[in-house]
Design brief:
Blueprint lengths: L19 H32 L6 H18 L1 H10 L2 H22 L12 H33 L5 H30 L1 H21 L15 H14 L1 H30 L8 H26 L1 H20 L4 H29 L5 H28 L7 E3 L2 E3 L1 H23 L19
Antiparallel strand pairs: 1-2
Helix pairs in contact: 1-2, 1-5, 1-6, 1-7, 2-5, 2-13, 3-5, 3-13, 4-5, 4-7, 5-13, 6-7, 6-10, 6-12, 9-12, 9-13, 9-14, 10-11, 10-12, 11-12, 11-14
Length: 451
């Protein structure tokens, strides 16, 4: 008799990503990010091709959505950190998901988008309702995101933080590739209500995922409180006194001062420099999204070989070089290829940031540190977008120059400056972090230990 036949077959555990708790959080985040892209694309189409169609103020109305996102990111983000560090992070996440689902449901009902509803709001009232919904939903996000980062710090071992950051970053380009192509036909076939309902449902899925994740919140709530202003100063003092956090923040701000300009003017680059139809603009974005996806997947391998800090400034250096070359592209094919290549180091840069911050920040400070870092990056991006548009329309309007056999126009000159900013950030980080080592101690609890 074959003795091996009597051996019990070992039970197979479910293939969790890092930990069971993290897998649930990642699943909820992925669905929520996809819902956000559906929501954002639908709002733009709803305004531009809907109630503001053929109106001279339509571009300004679409820009107002960006403003409605920017204001709470900056105004609420800084002050949310103290409360994120005070309150139960699981409760924060559940409350924010429920609130955002409710806000979008109110927008659907209040705008007359339910089946069978027949009333129509005046455009100004409709815009106001959209802006308020976007602003309040964004404000909720300023509590949700730092709370999730603090939870991830507690449940993921320090050695697995780059991998966790990679998984989180993968969700963004996937949503970029899937969300807008779904949102557009959904809007034109069924109207905005269905896409908005999908976004509301995505927050409910995130709510259920957080609920099932097995997070009990033990150790989250700080009993010692010294007043809001004192705790805020404590957080700012910690960040400003931590060399690594200062370098990460400054470098990210410098990089986004260049990156925002590229996002703002890429549509004009397609027409003026790549000499292509604007109908190909979406394909260019898809190429960039594919690069982000591949870069996020490869980032943990790069970080493991090179190290977190060197990967951070090295990725900024590589991104700057490729962006400068991208600015010289003069055909759509080259623009598509270089855009894909530029996205690779940008993805590595994005993946490296989170584990660096989580490794050097005590859990009780996580809300306040994230509440400075995130608004600072958002503010730099907004300033870059605004300045790029102003410079292109005024100082460099009609600009053409020749240097070393190269021809420079308005958009490619701004893109070149953006690449130089990436290089400046990389140079600063490489010098400021010379000789600096990541902390040896792990701030995370053992894998699978829910908080």
């Amino acid at each position: 008799m074959d003795s091996s036949a009597a051996q019990p077959v070992p039970a197979r555990s479910f293939p969790w990503l890092i930990t069971r708790t993290y897998t649930f959080l990642l699943a909820g985040q992925s669905v929520s990010v996809l819902g956000d892209f559906l929501f954002d694309t639908t709002l733009i189409l709803w305004i531009a091709a809907g109630f503001a169609r053929h109106q001279a103020w339509a571009p300004a109305a679409v820009s107002g959505v960006l403003l409605a996102t920017a204001i709470p990111t900056i105004a609420v983000g800084l002050f949310a950190g103290v409360f994120v560090d005070r309150w139960n992070r699981r409760t924060i996440m559940l409350t924010c998901d429920a609130a955002r689902a409710t806000l979008i449901t109110i927008l659907i009902v209040g705008s007359g988008l339910l089946p069978g509803e027949r009333f129509h709001l005046a455009p100004i009232i409709q815009l106001a309702l959209i802006y308020v919904t976007v602003a309040l939903s964004t404000a909720c996000g300023q509590f949700f995101l730092p709370a999730r980062s603090a939870i991830i710090q507690r449940i993921v071992p320090a050695a697995d933080l780059p991998k966790a950051s990679s998984y989180s970053q993968v969700a963004m380009p996937l949503a970029t590739l899937i969300g807008p192509p779904i949102a557009a036909p959904l809007f034109f076939a069924l109207g905005p209500g269905w896409a908005l309902a999908a976004d509301a449902a995505s927050f409910l899925v995130s709510f259920v995922a957080v609920w099932l994740a097995g997070i009990n919140g033990a150790g989250d709530v700080r009993t010692e409180r010294r007043g809001y202003a004192a705790e805020l100063r404590e957080g700012l003092s910690f960040l400003s006194g931590n060399r690594i956090l200062v370098v990460v923040t400054v470098t990210a701000v410098i990089a986004m001062l260049g990156g925002g300009a590229i996002n703002a003017l890429d549509v004009f680059f397609v027409r003026q420099n790549l000499h292509a139809s604007l109908s190909l603009y979406g394909l260019l974005g898809a190429g960039f999204g594919a690069g982000l996806l591949l870069g996020a997947i490869l980032a943990p391998l790069v970080i493991e070989r090179v190290g977190l800090l060197r990967s951070f400034w090295g990725a900024a250096l590589a991104a700057g070089c490729v962006v400068i070359v991208y600015a010289r592209a003069d055909s759509f094919v080259w623009g598509l290829v270089l855009g894909f290549v530029a996205a690779l180091p940008i993805a590595v840069l994005s993946v490296a940031v989170q584990p660096i911050v989580l490794r050097v920040t005590p859990n009780q400070m996580m809300g306040r540190v994230q509440a400075v870092l995130n608004p600072a990056i958002s503010l730099a991006t907004i300033l870059s977008i605004g300045l790029a548009g102003i410079i292109d329309s005024t100082l460099l309007h009609g600009f053409h120059a020749h240097l070393l056999g190269l021809t420079f126009g308005p958009v490619d000159t701004i893109f070149t400056a953006g690449g130089i900013l990436f290089l400046a950030g990389a140079l600063y980080a490489s010098l400021a972090l010379r000789g600096v080592q990541m902390p040896k101690t792990e701030t995370s609890e053992p894998a699978g230990n829910p908080i």
